[in-house]
């Protein structure tokens, strides 16, 4: 058993290394295939040929492709992700500055999405083809069908401009910027640590609408998947047997059927969370949220390849880490996988 665990660990480690290497190759290829000249992005369109050659040599762009890749690989392994053309700062420092805003937004969104989506999916499956099921399916269909940026603009018009129930764009009001010392980068945590509850409530007021809209989008996906998983379990023979033995309906649903879909739901929620971390760019744009998605888009528009390639690499690493977390949770929820 010990040897099997060691071999399993070696296989998993080798898989991770191969995946990371493939991700590096893919990221490098994206940087070379995009219709953007990184040299021109640095020196501008009016620079002469001599300046172009000098900068190309400094960047190693005049070398063969395999040498460029080896140089890129060496820089990544030594933690050198380059300097952003747009900000003039280290790319990794820029990302470390904007990532907490996106994590904060995505975390509250997935709490809303999973917290509502899983119970609604179970309820829809239990009441299949009844009014409750039809209503839930319509709500989730709207969540899938309506463009998220459109929902965001309507939400701002209704809840901010008309009713005044929530804050507007950004992470907080202008008059509160800089009042709470930036300790962790997570505004709610920093405000709580500083004991500045006015800034904390202002940050919550600005967070609730974009997080709810993102949560609604992920809720629609999680609800539909939960309903599908539960319907499959409720049609199994063991459920019929449990009911014949006299078990209550709630115990049959939650203790037996739901227990068998927990592992599947872990994957669904993890993938939904990863998608929120890298795909919240539309909401971040609508709400002027200074997060990772907006940073990546702004740099892509100006051809800042150092920033774009690093962002793509980080997105891949996020999904790898979420898959590893899913594997760990599998063993917690299902002892048979240990």
From TrEMBL:
This is Peptide ABC transporter permease. It holds the Pfam family BPD_transp_1_N. Gene3D superfamilies: MetI-like (1.10.3720.10). It is found in: Cell membrane. It comes from Phyllobacterium zundukense. The chain crosses the membrane at residues 12-34, 105-126, 138-163, 203-222, 265-287, 307-330. One of its GO terms (molecular function) is dipeptide transmembrane transporter activity. It is a multi-pass membrane protein.
């Amino acid at each position: 058993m010990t040897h099997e665990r060691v071999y399993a660990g070696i296989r998993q480690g080798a898989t991770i290394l191969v995946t990371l290497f493939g991700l590096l190759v893919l990221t490098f290829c994206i940087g070379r295939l995009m219709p953007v000249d990184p040299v021109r992005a640095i020196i501008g369109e009016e620079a002469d040929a001599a300046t172009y050659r000098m900068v190309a040599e400094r960047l190693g762009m005049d070398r063969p492709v395999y040498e460029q890749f080896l140089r890129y690989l060496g820089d990544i392994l030594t933690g050198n992700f380059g300097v952003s053309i747009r900000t003039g700062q280290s790319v990794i420092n820029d990302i470390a500055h904007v990532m907490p805003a996106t994590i904060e937004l995505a975390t509250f969104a997935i709490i809303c999405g999973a917290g509502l989506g899983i119970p609604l999916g179970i309820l829809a499956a239990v009441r299949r083809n009844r009014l409750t099921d039809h209503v839930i399916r319509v709500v989730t269909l709207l969540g899938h069908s309506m463009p998220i940026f459109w929902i965001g603009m309507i939400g701002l018009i209704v809840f901010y401009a008309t009713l005044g129930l929530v804050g507007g764009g950004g992470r907080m009001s202008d008059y509160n910027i800089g009042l709470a010392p930036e300790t962790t980068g997570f505004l709610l945590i920093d405000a709580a640590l500083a004991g500045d509850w006015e800034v904390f409530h202002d940050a919550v007021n600005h967070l609730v609408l974009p997080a709810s809209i993102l949560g609604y989008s992920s809720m629609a996906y999680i609800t539909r998947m939960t309903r599908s998983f539960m319907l499959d379990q409720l049609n199994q023979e063991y459920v019929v047997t449990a009911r014949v033995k006299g078990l209550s309906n709630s115990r049959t649903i939650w203790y037996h059927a739901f227990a068998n879909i927990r592992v599947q739901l872990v994957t669904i929620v993890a993938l939904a969370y990863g998608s929120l971390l890298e795909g919240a760019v539309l909401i971040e744009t609508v709400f002027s949220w200074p997060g990772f998605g907006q940073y990546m888009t702004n740099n892509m528009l100006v051809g800042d390849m150092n920033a774009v390639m690093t962002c793509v690499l980080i997105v891949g690493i996020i999904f790898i880490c979420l898959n590893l977390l899913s594997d760990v949770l599998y063993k917690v929820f299902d002892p048979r996988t240990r």
